[in-house]
Amino acid sequence: MHEKIIILDFGSQYTQLIARRVRELNIYCEIHPWNKCPELNENTKGVILSGSPFSVRDAASPKPDLTKIKGKLPLLGVCFGAQFLASNFGGEVLPSTIREYGRANLSFVDQENILTKGMSEGSQVWMSHGDTIKNVPAGYKVIASTKDVEFAGFEVENEQTFGIQFHPEVYHSTEGTILLKNFLVNVCGCAQDWTPDSFVEETVARLQEQIGDDSVILGLSGGVDSSVAAVLLHKAIGKNLHCIFVDNGLLRKNEFVSVLESYKGMGLNVKGVDASSKFYAELKGLTDPEAKRKAIGKVFIDVFDEESKLVKDAKWLGQGTIYPDVIESVSSSGGPSATIKSHHNVGGLPDYMKLKVIEPLRLLFKDEVRRIGRSMNIDENILGRHPFPGPGLGIRILGDITPEKVAILQDVDHIFISSLKEDGLYDDVWQAGAIFLPIQSVGVMGDERTYENAVALRAVSSTDGMTADWCHLPYEFLAKVSNRIINQVKGINRVTYDISSKPPATIEWE
Length: 510
Ligand code: XMP
Fold this sequence. Notes:
This protein has 510 residues and is of the alpha/beta class. The strands form four sheets. A nine-stranded mixed sheet has the order 2-1-3-4-9-8-7-5-6, with helices on both faces. Strands 12-11-10-13-16 form a five-stranded parallel sheet, with helices on both faces. The radius of gyration is 27 Å and the shape is globular. The chain has 13 helices and 20 strands. The protein starts with a strand and ends in a 13-residue tail after the last strand. The structure holds xanthosine-5'-monophosphate. The site of xanthosine-5'-monophosphate (XMP) has 16 residues, from loops.
């Protein structure tokens, strides 16, 4: 097992950001709810207590049991974590009388202290709390202050325990990484050897041990996660990995053939199954978005089930699940813990399939999946792909789905996406696509009046799809794409651009 840092989560919006910063320093860490601290062993190099929407003064606020941690392992409390370390051990935390939100500057920083060494006087830090530490317990020494906050940082003497009331993980704390690195490397003694290559090596060895000579089946989607999961499994078990790539008739133009080709080029044992007609038959006449999603999910499971029965000795199902899908979140409303449900994915597999699930990426954030993919030389075309929903164009055709509408939308989408690539805009956009609208409108082409379909173009910027803003694409670019679509795609005489943000809109229209 790799050495690791445990982050105990008290529900702060920044907890995942702490984890990402730790991992950017090539140090492995895990997030756990504050009341479910895992077994600590010789691999646990230190613990970080996150911030929280709670105040330590609330009767209902989290009260972690730190007996096995404080004074025994390196410990860093951030914001709420620091205030808990003060209030619970004889200090005093009160509501702040001044605003302690946003930027502040350190008026004092202990240059000799192992945690703050290398940070400069005047260093900008990011504060976000309604309480402040008024008094620290005996044996606590101040190591950083701002004009208004005396105990911005403290050390507990004769222990490797520290607290900071600012957030080193956010970008606005300009020297936050220095502090985190000091804690992780100089206090905890982490080796910074959790690299993409070491991850691949350790994961491959673990998968080999776990799977042995069994066979694994895995559904490929053409997206980043399933592709990277497949390549890792392939490295581990070679021909015993059986990949299935289903054409649901709702993919992008030429995608089935081109993605299948690139998978074969990567040496994967992949079977392409053209099941479009089954999907179209099940979708016939359906207009309700949820009914369409369910129909697509059902046929997918049927096809996948049928195909997996053809694989002898298949005992495992490989999945591209990633870390944000599995982190157990702490409810900020004070209720019991809830597991984050990622997005509305195309159903799970039914129990009767009796396959054990294997998820080689379940510990990684999305950008880490890409880095691992790069270290295994996976094609940039796959790694840099925009996300694409499981039900594909099925949720971008409003109303009923017909093969003719799919063909029209594929052409429109192809023009939009290839123009983004041509103009060097593709990588600036998080996700883009076209929507077939259920309306027709009047137009003129040559001397003739037309009464044809309208499409909408959507391009958004986002980090995780949970919130998104519409992309301010250049007018000249939009004009060019609109002309191309109307001139080249028969059946379309009107193009609109979606300028809604999420929330309150969503990225997809259905
Ligand atoms: P929304 O429309 O909810 O989309 O803002 C957020 C992200 O999720 C994708 N999405 C889906 N992905 N199955 C999927 O696998 C679905 O049913 C589904 N619906 C939305 C969407 O493309 C965007 O990236």
